[in-house]
Backbone:
């Protein structure tokens, strides 16, 4: 049984195609069951986010399985196959495994190392389980992938380096004041950047958020989104005397906060420390404000400097993540090939025993007057011939099992000897364990 991954993402398809190809949560259960019933598909998971739509499947026939998934995409979304073909990619066997490992680790995202995808993959797998659309290969595939995603983040800290302006602004505030709960925060402006910043503030634990904007109505709307309070622009000096952090992102063409004004405010604050973060272009806060004692000022260039550094850190972490994926790929490869190799070896041994028993009984039927000792010698010789004959193929097959071609060698052996290979049965399950000396590893249970 072979893993495959068919789909499109932000690199292969524009947003207007991704929109058409997405699955609404209310459609997911029906879509999973329909796809599970397609020809050659034994288990399936659908991953649908704003940046990607992918089907991961376990198939008994790679070519037929891929064709079934593409036909499903075309019919379900009402898109002609020749158009859809321009945007779809197909990963088969271990390329499919590596692809999912990279996806869940955030290495295939628009922003390297982003954390949201880990939860999205987990949810997609849970939905497939609820629809009874998975099988053993899919279960091990996704359980392993989720463990890989967690290990990458734990071992590399790839998601600990913010790479967006709004998120970095909040991180700077946290570095300056520690926990944001209970800190007075004023957001000046109610545009897109302010909205993103407000969301990050709430996620970071901020509880006292004020919003000021030239349009009071817009300030009210944003304040509701972050459970904050809107304040009128005319009253903003009063609040500047009270808050600890100001994040400014207005659309003003001129400086909103000037040195003289801020010096007066700091006197009324009795020089209590204040952090100003200016993420507007053009700037809202005059650069000389940063020279006033007890005021720390960051502008957007300062933030971009931090972001550039964080991008470098994420790239370094991504290199480490790829090495982790290589390690995990080898473990999964060994497990997956064992699904083919072990039943094949058992079938080969069983065939050898059947031939041995048949030929021994035939020979003994032509021989008369043999003593029990002589009969035992004949049986022992026949057994030894079979064991010696099969020993080298079995040893070599076990070695080939640890390569990417292991499943092909088993198929060749099955065809050459016309083996009757039993179903997988209960094969070892690949589970994540923790070793204090070596970190994460897997063992069969």
Residues:
């Amino acid at each position: 049984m072979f893993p495959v991954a068919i789909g499109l993402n932000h690199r292969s398809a524009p947003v207007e195609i991704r929109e058409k190809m997405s699955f609404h949560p209310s459609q997911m259960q029906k879509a999973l069951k329909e796809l599970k019933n397609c020809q050659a598909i034994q288990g399936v998971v659908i991953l649908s986010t704003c940046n990607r739509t992918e089907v991961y499947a376990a198939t008994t026939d790679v070519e037929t399985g891929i064709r079934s998934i593409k036909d499903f995409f075309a019919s379900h979304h009402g898109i002609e196959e020749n158009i859809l073909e321009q945007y779809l990619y197909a990963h088969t066997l271990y390329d499919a495994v590596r692809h999912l490992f990279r996806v869940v680790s955030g290495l295939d995202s628009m922003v390297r190392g982003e954390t949201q995808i880990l939860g999205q993959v987990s949810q997609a797998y849970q939905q497939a389980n609820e629809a009874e659309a998975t099988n053993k290969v899919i279960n091990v595939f996704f359980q392993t992938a989720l463990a890989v995603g967690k290990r990458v983040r734990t071992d590399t800290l790839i998601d600990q380096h913010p790479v967006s302006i709004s998120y970095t602004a909040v991180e700077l505030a946290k570095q300056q004041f520690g926990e944001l709960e209970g800190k007075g925060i004023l957001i000046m402006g109610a545009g897109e950047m302010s909205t993103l910043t407000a969301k990050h503030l709430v996620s970071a634990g901020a509880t006292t958020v004020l919003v000021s904007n030239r349009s009071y109505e817009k300030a009210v709307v944003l304040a509701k989104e972050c459970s904050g309070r809107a304040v009128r622009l005319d009253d903003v000096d009063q609040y500047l005397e009270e808050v600890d952090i100001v994040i400014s992102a207005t659309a003003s063409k001129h400086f909103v906060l000037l040195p003289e004004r801020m010096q007066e405010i700091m006197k009324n604050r009795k020089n209590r420390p204040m952090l100003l973060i200016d993420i507007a272009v053009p700037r809202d806060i005059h650069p000389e404000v940063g020279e006033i004692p007890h005021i720390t000022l960051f502008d957007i260039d300062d933030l971009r400097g931090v972001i550039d550094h964080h991008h470098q850190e994420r790239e370094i972490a991504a290199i480490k993540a790829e090495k982790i994926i290589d390690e995990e790929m080898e473990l999964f490869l060994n497990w997956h090939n064992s699904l083919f190799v072990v039943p094949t070896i058992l079938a080969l041994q069983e065939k050898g025993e059947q031939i041995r028993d048949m030929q021994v009984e035939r020979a003994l039927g032509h021989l008369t007057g043999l003593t029990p000792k002589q009969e035992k010698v004949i049986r022992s010789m026949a057994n030894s011939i079979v064991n010696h004959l099969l020993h080298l193929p079995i040893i070599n097959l076990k070695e080939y099992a640890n390569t990417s071609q292991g499943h092909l060698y088993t198929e060749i052996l099955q065809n050459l000897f016309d083996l009757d290979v039993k179903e997988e049965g209960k094969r070892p399950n690949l589970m994540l364990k923790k070793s204090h000396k070596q970190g994460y590893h897997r063992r069969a249970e």
In short: The chain has three domains: 2-160, 165-298, 341-444. The first helix runs from residue 15 to 21. The domain at 2-160 is CATH 3.30.460.30 (Beta Polymerase; domain 2).
